[in-house]
Every structure is written in C-alpha cells, then in structure tokens.
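re the bet — no i am not wrong, look at it urself. input seq straight from the record:
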Amino acid sequence: MPCKDITDHLRIRLDANDRISRYALRKLSCGGAVGNQSLIMDWLENKTAEEVLESQADTLLDAHNVTDEIEEYLLLKHFLAVKAGLSIMLGRESGGIEDYCRVEAIRCSPQGTEIVAQISVEGMTDQIQACGRCGKH
C-alpha cells in the first residue's frame, strides 16, 4: 500500500439506551476505504458500552471461530479500537489507550451518542500482541 498514513478513523453510535447501534473503523488510503469497516458489528450490536468494556478478546475470537492470524489481527484491531473509544468517552482508566486513541468529538443528543476518534494502528500494535492467543495473556 503506497500510503504511509497508518491512522484509522473510528465512529461509534450509541442509541438512547447506551447500546451500540453502529460503528465504523476505516483506513482511508488514496481516497478510498480499505477493508470491512464494521467487521465486528454482528458481535457488538445491541451491547451496552459497559458490556463491551467488560468483554475479553477471547470472547470475540471464540464467537468468530478464528483460524487465521490476519483475521485475528483485524478482529482485535476493531475490538480494541471500539473499547478505546468507549473507555475514553466514559472517563475510564485508559491503561495506555491514550497512546493510540485520540477522541476528536463526542456528540450527545436525545437519540444517543456519537464518538469520533482517530486510532494510531502503530500505537495499538503492542496491545494487539498482548491480547492475541499467543500465550502472553
């Protein structure tokens, strides 16, 4: 990929009951989105922010029957990005999240909340390695 920008753009929408209704994590390269921007929406849908923050990576990986390292990496990237955005929104202890997630906006309305952030994939790499099924749990 010729583009050297390894920043992903994250957008999470929560409904009025604080449940995830939509999210997108996308890498914009040369004007076009790359990959599935809502890779784990089937797993996230209707979960509350608290439920997601309490979830462990293995739960997500088990639900997707992961057999490929690339698929595992992509699932973990989406999982950790969403958790980072939600954690910052709720003012939780970040545990290094601020190193790779920068929230640009949190918009609240009677219909729900929207979080817009940038994710440094390079900064997230150590976290992904620690969460994977590599035995470093």
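see?? Helices lie at 41-44, 49-54, 57-63, 69-89, 121-131. told u. also The chain has one domain: 7-131. so pay up
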